[in-house]
TrEMBL record, chains A, B, C, D:
Gene Ontology BP term (one): dTTP biosynthetic process
SUPFAM superfamilies, alphabetized: Thymidylate synthase-complementing protein Thy1
Catalytic activity: dUMP + (6R)-5,10-methylene-5,6,7,8-tetrahydrofolate + NADPH + H(+) = dTMP + (6S)-5,6,7,8-tetrahydrofolate + NADP(+)
Residues at the active site: 223
UniProtKB keywords: FAD, Flavoprotein, Methyltransferase, NADP, Nucleotide biosynthesis, Transferase
Species whose genome carries this gene: Antarcticimicrobium luteum
The protein's annotated pathway: Pyrimidine metabolism; dTTP biosynthesis
Protein name per Swiss-Prot or TrEMBL: Flavin-dependent thymidylate synthase
Lineage: Bacteria, Pseudomonadati, Pseudomonadota, Alphaproteobacteria, Rhodobacterales
Annotated family: Belongs to the thymidylate synthase ThyX family.
Name of the encoding gene: thyX
Chain positions recorded as FAD binding sites: 89, 112-114, 120, 212-214, 218
């Protein structure tokens, strides 16, 4: 993650300017503000701003005049109740703003989460930097043979090396040509909005992304999941750590009820009831398809 | 606006607890935090939290590493440019959370603005207070004769007095009966979720309402407009004052380009071009219907 | 559900006018179009329009050029897969438009589902009808003693009779006074936008409500649930029947994975694994609170 | 726009299967259904489904039991009134579903319109086709010298030729290498979700895109605007033609009040009033910045 000295100075400057506020302050988050946490080879996540804390969730749920806190244990119980019963609106009362640097193909997945605010670096207006995601060798993996939209084991050495060679060479050539086309030395220079089309999807972009806690949890449940593509999962994992420090009660409830939990079908619940009674249930007697049964076995450990 | 001594103490308590933060701080908004500003006879608006300031709008528009401020005049120019060209996403980077107490019929209009987060006081769970909106005599107005969905001049004394008498008597009786039905003295007591249906639309409710600045401006443009119903307009007017102190550049641009501006049709623009050339344009020669022409004349002063 | 003869004639007229279309047609839904299905004492639900069918879900999931149907069994399998894995966007490709007549206090709950399009009958512009929801005696229930936001057993005869008497009398008086205030006989007549505030929350309103299938399923899961208030649940139940005829595969998957299913926490899954192994698990050894355990026991039957 | 014979057959098949429906039918749209209208060198737009027509807008605005049509002229007047007064909800009652094939860099702009439903062809799951957008020579333009985010005049012959050569060669090489990496001949084959990152932003993708008429108009106002990038504008232009045939009254109102209209600031309105009175107003005396004045002069013709 190459931050320029100017960028590092700007971040240090922001971290140096403490002010007074009457708003709710989350000490765990103040520690993270502005700092760029590296993700992948050139990416990062950094918190630009946040609104609210665990108490703010309770305050809104109670529509209270003051802090809404009766007691700390009381607050955690309420938050667990809200999470368990899908009362999502109190979680919407917290908000976070992130600055993220990420490859374009990751950005394309990410943006599908519509309930968020986004300002992306404009390649119509500005020139993109020469920064491309090149996977670490252990993440250069084969197409999965069991999951049509996933990856399997890492490629063997020679094949992995060929892949990395291609990715590096094509990125470099594409960028050289991008620069050549927009250059106004001895020529007019192609419009940036056109030249960008030559750049591959592993080039880095960046954006400001603002989202409420409920929708962030939804994002994290899907993107920190084991089935998410590795390259977006590492961003979700990094954000999980930040959220755990920001709203510890809410994050713990999220871990228990969402990340670590599972939604079971009526058929699956019926199987469980039979199994608890001592009945031996097989895929054939379960009423599930093979795929469902395999996933169910995964949940049952 | 009858706040109980406990509520006033809670608010004073919140205003007394200043903390350090590294986040952007809007001094104009710190002054308003938590204070309940009266609206109508029992309502209020108070700011619970906010995120961002004028500089945060520019910072997001520039996807910058630091504060995003080049210079103050530069920032105002950028904000005006963004507003003029409908670049709405940078304004979405600011967020505000309000606690509002308002009559139910106002809440029903307000909630139609969908892009916001809401936690309303639950009349399934809790007992509503005996507080009803009774208009001041000067706002007891006749049905408009020119606008089917508006009001005209204030009613004359005797008729206004009858109306006020009815509103007060019916509110009081409805609430007496509400209390009688839910009481568990000498009877079981009707479920709150049922009893509430006896209460009229002028009873007060309250909610936490959180919205980004772009969507707040949209709300204000429609609800602070002269055609909005008076009882929601006074809330919008109060919020306008708060926003003016929070993000002064953005608010000034909003006033110039939205509140004080007008959207003119192709037909209207054509008329203006002819008028500037000295042509006398009438409704007949304008190509507009009578209604459009009347509105156009209103814009032309 | 008192439809006027004119309204019945308009509905019959719409049902009599069949036309040719090249669009996807859901035969099960064509049978329901326009017909008003009664709900509560004066309410109804009727389908005004729909877009798509089961095949359209698959077509979008496959981004296909033609119908997207490989085979019927194939389609149902795909739909179950999409539902199981929370792939919600293909379900968003179906849309339904309903005309609903419902009490205001039900409308206030309903409108909290924001991802939908709504046009409500305007009481600023028009005069509301004299129609109020008065519960059937068996639904006049006491406040629940175990659930703070629910109802318990029906009230006993005398108390129920008192409640019904109050609801009827207060509704009638409120409406009489509403009419008296807006009347322009011998007086100016109060503006409708003001007079409406005298009407209680059991008066009926109506709206056009349009929503995509994914968001409709979310609404139905929450509102057809046993914990939803009876007066909104009956609307959800009626809509469930319509959806079952519209998109039978999707509805069946929804019943299995959502309505009949359950989301279990990591803690609950751990308990299940222990129980299947033959361990006796109690609330004390479960790691759950009493409330969670009671709900868990409910799921385990 | 190279449709395969199979795709053409599927489209012809869909256009050949007419069925009876009781729903609102828009004859102008039936003529367009399924047909792929070419855009750019390999792209297209085709209508997959639609809901509603001009009458449906009025029907919803009136919350009516029947068709909602009083008379045709009455309907057009109502639609113009709704458009003029920003009553957007009745327009949300119409919905359209499109199948669009478009370059990735266009898709990235398009997706920023969040209030829509999207299913995109998955390059994690499937292999992308070898189809790249290569601009026609007259659209290979220089960076604008007056607008930092736009393009100016076409490049001269030799420079344009160089650009086209680069775009073609880099696209071809990138795709060759994409194929080489995913191939499982004599090697394992790289996962598709990784290989796609080598592909440039001018490769074509495709999606199903569903949106309501209000949000479609918002999209068209921004993207059919002269300042939009040419490559997305041609899609918007093509959709405009379809909408004009679908809801002719609404489209006409949109053209007059939105596309052909302009939003003027309070300052600009003040200048116009002075100009109509015969005063000579200059940039200096206008109160506008140079940029604003230039835009204002553009509006004034």
């Amino acid at each position: 993650m190459p931050l320029s000295p100017e960028q590092e100075a700007e971040i240090a400057d922001q971290r140096g300017q403490s002010q007074q506020t009457l708003r709710a302050v989350a000490p765990g988050m103040e520690d993270h503000l502005y700092t760029a946490y590296p993700v992948l080879d050139h990416g990062f996540v950094r918190v630009i701003d946040y609104m609210g804390d665990d108490a703010a969730i309770c305050q809104a749920a109670r529509v209270s005049y003051g802090k809404g806190t009766k007691s700390v244990s009381n607050d955690e119980g309420l938050i667990r109740y809200l999470m368990r019963h899908w009362h999502s609106t109190p979680f919407e009362m917290c908000e976070i703003k992130l600055h993220v640097k990420l490859p374009v193909f990751v950005a394309r997945q990410w943006i599908r989460h519509r309930t968020a605010n986004v300002n992306e670096y404009s390649a119509r207006y500005s020139i993109l930097d020469r920064e491309f995601y090149i996977p670490a060798p252990e993440h250069v993996a084969a197409q999965s043979t069991v999951n049509n939209q996933g990856r399997g084991a890492p490629l063997e050495g020679a094949e992995a090396a060929r892949v990395l060679e291609i990715l590096k060479a094509d990125s470099a050539r594409a960028y050289d040509n991008y620069e050549a086309m927009i250059s106004d030395e001895g020529q007019q220079g192609l419009a940036r909005e056109l030249a960008r089309m030559n750049l591959p999807a592993n080039i880095y972009t960046q954006w400001y992304w603002k989202v409420d806690l409920h929708n962030l949890f939804h994002f994290l449940r899907l993107r920190a999941d084991a089935h998410a593509q590795y390259e977006i999962r590492v961003y979700a994992d990094e954000i999980c750590k930040l959220v755990a420090d920001w709203v510890p009660f809410a994050y713990r409830a999220f871990e228990d009820y969402r990340m670590g939990g599972a939604t079971l079908s009526a058929t699956a619940l019926d199987c469980i009831r039979r199994m608890v009674k001592g009945e031996e249930v097989t895929q054939e007697s379960s009423g599930m398809s093979k795929g469902e049964w395999r996933e169910f076995m995964g949940v049952m450990g």
